[in-house]
## 1
Amino acid sequence: MSVVRTERHDDILVIISDNPPVNALSAAVRQGLEAGIKEGVADDSIAAMVIRCDGKTFFAGADISEFGKPMQEPILPILVDMIEAAGKPVVAAVHGTALGGGCEVALASHYRIAVPSAKFGTPEVKLGILPGAGGTQRLPRVAGVELALEMTAKGTMIPANRARDAGLIDRLAGEDSLEKDAIAFAREISGIRPVPKSSEKPLTHDPAVFEQFRKANARRFRGYEAPEANIACVEKATQTPYEEGVQFERMQFMKLIMGVQSAAQRHIFFAERKASKIDDVPADIKLRPIKRVGVIGAGTMGGGITMNFLSAGIPVTIVEMQQEALDRGTAIMRKNYEATAAKGRITAEQVEQAMGLLKPTLDMNDLAECDLIIEAVYENMDVKKEVFGKLDKIAKPGAILASNTSFLDVNEIAASTSRPEDVLGMHFFSPANVMKLLEVVRGDKTAGDVLATVMALAKKIRKVAVVAGVCHGFIGNRMLEPRQVEAMKLLMEGATPEQIDKVHVDFGMPMGPFQMSDLAGVDIGWHRDPNRIENIRDALCAEERWGQKKKAGWYDYDDKRNPSPSPRVAEIIEEFRKKSGAAQHEVTTEEIIERTLYPMVNEGARILEEGKAQRASDIDVVWIYGYGWPPYRGGPMFWADTEGLKKIVAGLEKHGFKISALLKEKAEKGERFT
Ligand code: 3HC
């Protein structure tokens, strides 16, 4: 059966797409739409047409899985032009999300009606491309230049009421009567001539808008190619006739889609979705119901973790040892919510709703009512074991017991209970209410349904979750370690912290290893004995150069936390260089990349070799969402593939690293990780 069918309602032809899960505009859908429009045009008894979708959403865009393959006709730009040129009114009836090519179908239609819950967006920029079916030219004409910039260059999605205010939709339908209302609307406007065309709408704008927009978003767009291409296309729409603008858009689209950045960003799109899948657990396994969550510890981590659940409408019992700590933790959560409300992102009512779901307590026995209990206490094996021993006695049968550890052995923690099958790790990243990544650590005995339940719950609290095996530092922190070790060695051989950080920032990271250390705290994991100075870091810590919090770390900081290179740190480094007698040389950018980034790839390969990650793309997801690896480079494993694994191996060999067998094998065979 065709994925597109037509239904006649007297003089109105309804063209319906049914291509689950998201009505992507695949070749079959495009062919079906073309046939539907032709049918409506050819039939004199048809006065107007409606395009709508079955299932959960209007077209979510072009079918991304078709990119990079030969395109089948009709291609989307031709199809949307055909819709606009129909000569009879076409009404797009939107529910769910009209995204990318879906939004372009709506824009090419002569009228748009949507349910109040519908959303509109052109998120192509997030895939490293731009709306390539006239979207950059029609959208500013219909919704104005400013909104078009916001939607195309930033990928902002807008709700139906905003779309109506902007003129992007003509009418709101009833939430449950879209088809009926769309047919009535189509009948109402069926006689209007000429049929209004988005491409012919006059375009007014303030030319200063573009420079302002570029300037305001320079930081956000740093390193990316697609945002500027989107801006340039919208700008072109204001400068040239529609046809020329479309040609310009086409050229820009082709350039982007052939480029490495778009390939990287598309890789991440699919990698993120793949990450939620567990290879050896059936997709339909029965999940354990999670109606109430328990959190032990109301510190920064515990509080952040708790907020994720409250925001998702899941009640939380939070336990602390002292009333003061409990009150402080609760007050910080409230303050965070209120700050979000002050920015207009949530309402005062939502603040109360979330806080109303919180049950603070000093009594650990209250955790007996929880279906999932997450421990966020001090990162120490003995402390964790004691907590889990207690939990084992308190938690109800079937409750999931999770440790928010960032490197400890989850098997050992699980062994301190009589139910290791119910135990796993949930490694949140700080600030836990903001950071998207969650490493779900699967112990040797963790039951399949426990793992699947937590992975599904992660989606509910809007995290991107990745399954990791038990090993020191799991996926993310384990790969961070060789990078830090090499960065320290480079200092001894002649590099400066500023130089190494700059290479990482120029690469696209939000910060370099030393800036990161200053932010996290140079003293994290320090032995706290100022007289025991074995390395440069000990020396910094002994002088209380603990990072940003002390206004001194690897850098000096002013009152606004602006960093500047520290003469004192330079002295300390020099002292250590002299003492060690290490040979000095001029360290190049290339060497910094080869010695700090290549070893991460090497470690990633070992993680795969040992089965601690399910797939290479999971490693990329960890680094994109947990550590700010630039999405336009696709994550460390995708990046290694684009660099060429032979080159990575040669670089590692040059510097005397022991190379992972898997990496070597793939390089020799000319294979890729992703
Ligand atoms: N093409 C192909 N597959 C798609 C797709 C698309 N445009 N959008 C989603 N899918 C797939 C996903 O890969 C996933 O597959 P899986 O089940 O095998 O893992 C499945 O559909 C469901 O997707 P989600 O898990 O993301 O479902 P959600 O309900 O969470 O989200 C959504 C739905 C908001 C529509 C989200 O999928 C999304 O944002 N999709 C991408 C939208 C987009 O970027 N559109 C622009 C495409 S490019 C374009 O249109 C170019 C044109 O201008 C020429």
## 2
Amino acid sequence: MDDARFPQLRSPAADEERLPPPASFVEQANVTDESIRREFEQNWPACWKRAATLLDWSTPYDRVLDTDDGYTWFDGGSLNAAYNCVDRHLEAGRKNQAAIKWEGKLGETRTYTYQDLSREVNALAAALRDLGVEADDVVTVYMPMIPELPITMLACARIGAVHSVVFAGFSGDALATRMENSNSEYLLTCDGYYRRGTAYDLKSKADNACLAVPQSVEQVVVDRLGDDRSLGDDYHDYGDLVADHEGADVDPVARDADDDLFLIYTSGTTGQPKAVRHTTGGYLSHVAWTSHAVLDLEPDDTHWCSADVGWITGHSYIVYGPLALGATTVMYEGTPDHPERDRLWEIVERNAVDVFYTAPTAIRAFMKWGSEHPDSHDLSSLRLLGTVGEPIDETAWRWYYEHIGDEECPIVDTWWQTETGGVLLSTLPGVDPMRPGAAGPALPGVEADVVDATGKSVDPGESGSLVVTRPWPGMAASLCEGADPGADSPVTHGTGGWTYRTGDSARVDRDGYIHLLGREGDVINVAGHRLGTTELESAIVGVDGVAEAAVVGGDHDLKGTEVYAYVSPRKNVSATEPLRERVREAVADAIGPFATPDTVVFTPDLPKTRSGKVMRRYLERITNGEELSDTSALRNPEIVGELESIVEDIS
Ligand code: WTA
């Protein structure tokens, strides 16, 4: 393994510490039986039955896992996701329980009971049908954090349409790329949204996207800003559609277990965002099971995952997991520090949140703002804390444990990806001891390994590539393919068996706990958002006057990683402030403002191998002030010293 690729190993002493889960938690936990791992080990496909029993099936499945041609989970079974997330809870006598509690800007709140949710989902489902939406059609949803977003997802699921939610922070161009790629002829969006008290326009971005795609698009618009603008004949008003279909009762469409539930775009190693498809039976079983076993959710719990529904975390653990179990899910609009830095703790207290799930980048910000903010609230309703999205360092882990959990809540550090659908690595909070800084072992039924470049397992303590070596129900449809997956597939069926390469580097400790070290390749992870370096670079080289660009991640105290763009201007073009601005704008236009490079470094040349390949790893080391001992592989070693001094001047 190339050492330059991996951060320094931490001292082995850090591996020794294990904190037992608090006894008060274990007493009430959903999963407490230590034999669960052994049980899954003995017959791993059959054990996933447990996950499927958390759902109601329209047709029972024949086999848990069919391997005749690729992998089909719960083959022969059919079910409807909206029925599982809404109707069956009404039938269970819980129609007046809150399903969604929404916290909007400046203290505005809305609560939807399961009955309310059922009414609006049915009305919208009927309206979508009237617009012509049929099973398997792709409906794009471009909305901020408002209740209409999960309602639209469930309305699509009810009629068997496939939703494609695009994060509202993406630009119109990024929306158009995704709509064109999925040939989506329906777009549900809204006029705008509020962030830090300011209204942002969304509709004109949606309009631009619709103009840019070849297909014609039916647009439905939610009036969020409340300015009652007339939409004109080209648009459907969401509120009017729902009112016109009030009282509708739409039969949930039974979907085959491997029919698509949704698709979501993510950054891969190519310049184009890639569509990840998730199935109805496998995905829903996986997120319901992990919500039960890892997040320990029960129907009378209030769960708050502070992610955005526009990313996979929100799909799985704001919408589908908690609602499948009939719990109350909280969603909030805005940011954690507006109007005050105690906003989240105020929401936890007022809603008596039981389980709180957030990202390390948020925890680092809370730490910086100071413990007086959580300390001024009663957080005693909390029972379990979770993190996801990036590695959590021990300091942030301890702060979270002490100041938010009062040392009484276990922390689950959950590792997973858009492609995995739900959590794959985590401690079971009522069973396993916690180890600050390590995600934990693979969940029961999941098998993971850390391997070297030849695919051989590395020794404990050594770093390598994280691979998953058995299929799991939440796996994306593209990973389910048969023996001959495409050349760029991360799945291989070699002599060592089935292997999914995750693209993360990791090391495993003596107890089998996996410590994540970061992304391996051409993807960087900024504040928990995945960005493809090629996507960013192609936006930058599109700027007039730019010859070449390379993007890398630099260490950042709060965001974990920040975006550094190394840009070399064309001959006779000078490196000026306006050029720098154009570079930043190009990225904001192509992807979205959240992806804008924090630092743009102009350089006459990029470090390249003799064959002309840009050495991003060298740039990464330069960015982070690390020494480069050997530059002999470079065609232009002199550029290194020059760049080192430019970067030193900036920081
Ligand atoms: C990273 C988000 C360390 C990892 C659910 C992965 C993590 C990428 C963790 C997926 C964790 C996620 N510890 N790293 N607990 N969880 N990651 O697709 O690099 O947006 O490959 O899915 O986030 O990001 P994605």
## 3
Amino acid sequence: MNASPLPSSTPSSLEALNDWVAEVAALTNPDSIHWCDGSDAEFDALVAGMQADGTLLPLNQDTHPGSWLHRSDPDDVARVEHLTFVCYEKEEDAGPNNNWMAPAEAHAKIDALFDGCMRGRTMYVIPYCMGPIDSPLSRCGVEITDSPYVVANMRLMTRMGADAQARIEREGSFVRGLHSTGELDPDRRYIMHFPDELSIKSYGSGYGGNALLGKKCHALRIASHQARSEGWLAEHMLIVGIENPQGETHYIAAAFPSACGKTNLSMLIPPDAYREKGWKVWTVGDDICWMRPGEDGRLYAINPEAGYFGVAPGTSAKSNPNALASIQHDTIFTNVAVTDDNQPWWEGLDDRVPARDWQGRDYVAGGGKAAHPNSRFTVSAKQCPSYSPQAEAAQGVPISAIVFGGRRASLVPLVFEARDWTHGVLVGASMGSETTAAATGQVGVMRRDPMAMKPFCGYNFADYFGHWLSFDKPGAQLPKVFHVNWFRKGDGGDFLWPGFGDNLRVLEWMIGRVKGEAGAVDTAIGALPRPEDLNLDGVELSDEARDKLFGFDPEGWRSEFDGIGEYLAGYGERAPEALLAEHARIAKRLGG
Ligand code: GTP
Ligand code: SPV
Ligand code: MN
């Protein structure tokens, strides 16, 4: 794809960067090398090239100006956890939560795939910064890729180009990410991480989480390892600001597994009665949160990303008007369906009937989903109407509450509060959730997904739990910890809680707890609100819904705690004593 003229290459003043680029070029043999400057002209030239070769298809430019559709290879539509490896010298450092390979073996295996793989192609060098360019909490990386689709997405998702390169040259160090789409053969596909080398190698997939290396590979797997040694946290969390009618804003960070509601909660629109009173919601981040203790002992958080790679299905004017408003222009859609006038469409958007499905085939009603269940939009965060001005703040935002949650059809109530930090860490470590289409494999199977980091923690979970516990020290002003479940189902199989905008009612209760104002009852699993402790004005709940959303089932929790105990035992001697003791205390109170 050299059809369009791109600005000329500008090698770096940093020798280590030039050397690495030269080394990669010698291995991969590209026809040309392009150093990305992040300019509009560069983006336009890339898009023109991709339009010329069919990588991007123009959508209806009257209704969706500047928007494009990309159709993936049908075998390359989600993260591939079974092909994702964390490579330390010692297997125990990766832990039972990761696939492990020794670094030398991993390099040899994947370098054999990279050998000559960019012949006939352009190699792009993408300097990027995760987090505001002037923030001490931010970290930089360079991704080398042969995919212009990756370059365009990285431009929307990160601070990419000349400013990032200047910071890298000042700092002298950066995370190295090498990516090639390869042949898109699932048998020749690996996502490898080398935390001790601060490097990533990804071959054979063009899908977001496998290919946009700033996101899960850097900002979660590599960063979680860095964060452990530097005393901070890299988490799979949204960050949202809740402004009350008095004008106070509380920031909440929430960890839900992939496709379990982070984007939606981060952009929620308050119910009418709340809006009329003056409640406002501010989006800081929808997927990743880096946080560290500030001088006052509170945790301060930044969103390392600059865009959203959001789940399309289910996004509508009713469920998430802010997301829908964000994606009306200058958006890349991946694997959505289209209407007969070439507008993007997905299940749950509206009642129009699409013309073509995500693979471009004529859509037949009743013949399966039109959009892929993991179809996504990529858009700059600045296009979101609720984008918080504090999202660009170098010092980050102070976190008042941390929320864990998952998809649990049964047992788990709408919300409860952990007694203290140690209990909160146990609540996070025991999270369970039903799997979704964000990763290949079976959907709807309950699995343990501690802190929503099962696919993303770059080291042994036992050490990670210990790292979380270590934040509780003299002088710390830690957030309160909660657990939510928007996905509780009734006997009829329907969701019992309306969710979306109404989730603000639960967040209001949490803020009330933080301020010592809201009521709750103590149980073995933590403090549960009674229905009267929440503002439920205007919410219709059946008797079954009230019982299940606010009820506590000791019998069910006893067996849940048995399961949690077995899970933690899987980490052996390495599991922190304090976490096991907390589990034992609660299990005893449950009579287990
Ligand atoms: P990743 O980007 O994969 O990390 O996911 P995410 O956590 O940002 O998920 P997202 O907010 O995109 O939600 C995924 C799915 O959950 C969508 O189909 C939503 O419609 C649905 N969802 C989100 N919030 C709620 C809720 O409060 N109730 C119900 N029932 N569904 C919800
Ligand atoms: C997730 O799967 O949690 C995502 C999408 O946020 S991806 O970046 O592709 O991993
Ligand atoms: Mn995610």
